[in-house]
């Protein structure tokens, strides 16, 4: 069995009671927190004060995904606010190596995300600066979109490159992850899965997490 993680996205949760929504996913490995600024993506969610408060009440580590411009300025503040990992978008960072180092210095795991159409190849040399790579499998901005199979070859290339470093760098996918698409993403080499609708859209989110994790863990790699 492979070691796979499921990080439910609170974008699909009930924003009027986030503390309760955290308890509903107690079987998860971390909670995925989507921060959007209505500039990098056409949607607006939460910011630093809410993330800080989530960190205070959550038993799960915070996996913060920053879909914001000016991430070089704001990213380290999320690390200092208690995020276990902070993901920035390569497309939004002017100085991604410095930012990754700043995140680690501030106590978080450093993670870099790529939109579906952004190639990974220009960033391969900086893999040792990262603890996780996030490959978006939908255009960032909204939950409930369909998984983009066109990203699967990039997941395979990323898996091979990560394995080539010999470093324990996680490979996360985010968007359209269901009990069906998780099989293809896991086969291609992803090992951390963000799932919003397919967890919070069910009667029993905690059970949905366990089902998704078992499906991924039992899927053989085909890289
Ligand atoms: O980053 C995101 C959107 O930009 C969300 O995390 C993602 O879309 C999860 O939602 P779903 O599983 O419903 O696709």
UniProtKB/TrEMBL annotation:
Binding site for substrate: 9, 65, 141-144, 174-176, 196-197
Annotated binding of a divalent metal cation, by residue: 32, 34, 65, 174
Record flagged with keyword Transport: no
Alphabetical UniProt keywords: Carbohydrate metabolism, Isomerase, Metal-binding
Pathway in which this enzyme or protein is active: Carbohydrate degradation
Cofactor note: Binds 1 divalent metal cation per subunit.
Keyword GTP-binding: no
Listed InterPro entries: Aldolase_TIM (IPR013785), Ribul_P_3_epim (IPR026019), Ribul_P_3_epim-like (IPR000056), RibuloseP-bd_barrel (IPR011060)
Active-site residues per Swiss-Prot or TrEMBL entry: 34 (proton acceptor), 174 (proton donor)
Its biological purpose: Catalyzes the reversible epimerization of D-ribulose 5-phosphate to D-xylulose 5-phosphate.
Family that this chain belongs to: Belongs to the ribulose-phosphate 3-epimerase family.
Stated name of the protein: Ribulose-phosphate 3-epimerase
Species per Swiss-Prot/TrEMBL record: Paeniglutamicibacter terrestris
């Amino acid at each position: 069995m492979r070691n796979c993680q499921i990080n439910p996205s609170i974008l699909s949760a009930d924003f009027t009671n986030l503390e309760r929504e955290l308890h509903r996913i107690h079987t998860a490995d971390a909670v995925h927190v989507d921060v959007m600024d209505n500039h990098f993506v056409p949607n607006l969610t939460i910011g630093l004060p809410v993330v800080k408060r989530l960190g205070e009440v959550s038993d799960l580590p915070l996996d913060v995904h920053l879909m914001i411009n000016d991430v070089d300025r704001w990213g380290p503040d999320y690390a200092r606010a208690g995020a276990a990992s902070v993901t920035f978008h390569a497309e939004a960072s002017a100085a991604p190596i410095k930012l990754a180092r700043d995140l680690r210095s501030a106590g978080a795991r450093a993670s870099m995300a790529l939109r579906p159409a952004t190639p990974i190849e220009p960033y391969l040399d900086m893999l040792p600066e990262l603890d996780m790579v996030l490959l978006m499998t939908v255009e960032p901005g909204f939950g409930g979109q369909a998984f983009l199979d066109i990203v699967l070859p990039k997941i395979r290339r990323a898996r091979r490159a990560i394995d080539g470093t010999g470093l324990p760098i996680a490979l996360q996918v985010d968007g359209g992850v269901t009990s069906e698409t998780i099989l293809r993403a896991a086969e291609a080499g992803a090992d951390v899965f963000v799932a919003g609708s397919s967890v919070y859209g069910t009667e029993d989110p905690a059970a949905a997490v366990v089902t998704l994790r078992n499906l991924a863990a039992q899927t053989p790699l085909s890289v």
